[in-house]
Structure formats: C-alpha cells, structure tokens
Amino acid sequence: MVRTISSEAAATPLKGLAPVIDVTARVLVLGSFPGVRSLQLQQYYAHPQNHFWRILGTLWNEPLPQMDYVQRCQAAQAHGLGIWDVYACCERAGSLDSAIRNAVVNDFAALQLRCPQLQAIAHNGGESWRHHKHTQSLGLPVYKLPSTSPANASWTFERKLQAWREVLQAHGVA
Question: Which residues pair with 91 in a beta bridge?
C-alpha cells in the first residue's frame, strides 16, 4: 500500500532572517517572508528582479544594486531604515505569499524597545499589510506600500518609486 502525503503536510518549517536594524532606525520596512532566493543567500530582497534595492538606490542616489549585501545593509542603516519581515517562520513551497501556511508573527513590541528613534512602519506589500493591526499597536504611523516583488507586475517601477518616496521622505529617510 502506498501512502500519499500532501505537500502541505510534508512542508518543512522555514525560519526567517534576523532584522537589519539598529538604534538609529526611523522607519522599519516589513516584508512578509523571504523568498526562496533570499533564504538561500540569507539576504533580504535577493531576487534580482525585486525592486527593493533599486528603489532605495534611486532615492538615495547610491548604486545599491551593484553593492554587496553587507554594503547595502550598511547604507540602509546609515539612512535610518530598518528591514525585517512580519513572519518569524512559516511553511511554504516556493516564494509566493499565497503559499504561506502556519506562520508565526515576529515580536514587534520587543523591536520597538531596541529602536527608540523608530517613527513609522512601512509594510512592503499586501501580505505584510494583513498584519498592520499588530504594528499599529505600537502607536506609530503605519503605511501600506506597493510590493517590490516581481510578482507585483501591475505596478511600474516609477509608480512604486513614487509611493516609496512619499513615505520615506515624510520621515527623513529619503
């Protein structure tokens, strides 16, 4: 007799990345959970088609897409930007947010204690935004930004850039 195990039942729990943030962070960008490529490389927004680093590089007039990951993170921190995800861990096949199952939300209250200058939270995309009630409880402005993911093809780079510019400028990060 052959037993078939569904892909959901066989899913292995995935652990997210540590936050890229320090005490000078004024804005925290929250994605949902790293994609396959980001988990493989242990780097936020590692997929070459993701617009995250290109948007920031354009706003800061820095060649972030050409820099190594450590330099990108240092630039983000120097500009007062923190990077993290909504989920600490989850089960997922592939990289799509729609495939996330059994997710555990990160501890945002503890993070706020580590970042006394934090002024705002910016959710990168709809899946992250689903948890804005968790982040609103911190008493900070909370924004929904268009996803920088290549899956968000309905938004042009220029349109994404403008939305991100508005939020980051409002808090002195762009």
Answer: 101
Q: Identify the CATH number of the domain in which residue 136 sits.
A: 3.40.470.10
Q: Are 85 and 128 in contact (CB under 8 A)?
A: yes
Task: Fill in the amino acid letter for 129.
Answer: W
Element (H, E) at 39: helix 36-41
37: in domain = yes
Is residue 163 one of the residues assigned to a domain? yes
Q: 138-167 pLDDT, tens per residue?
A: 999 999 999 999 999 999 999 999 999 999
Statement: the pTM of the whole predicted model exceeds 0.85: yes
> 92 exposed, middle or buried (CB, 10 Å; 0-12, 13-18, 19+)?
buried
Say which amino acid occupies 134: H
Closest CA to 144 of 31, 19, 50: 31
Domain count, the chain: 1
Domain that holds residue 133: 13-170
- In degrees and rounded to multiples of 5, residue 39 shows phi and psi of -65, -40
Task: Report percent pLDDT > 90 for the chain.
Answer: 87
Residue 6 in any domain: the answer is no
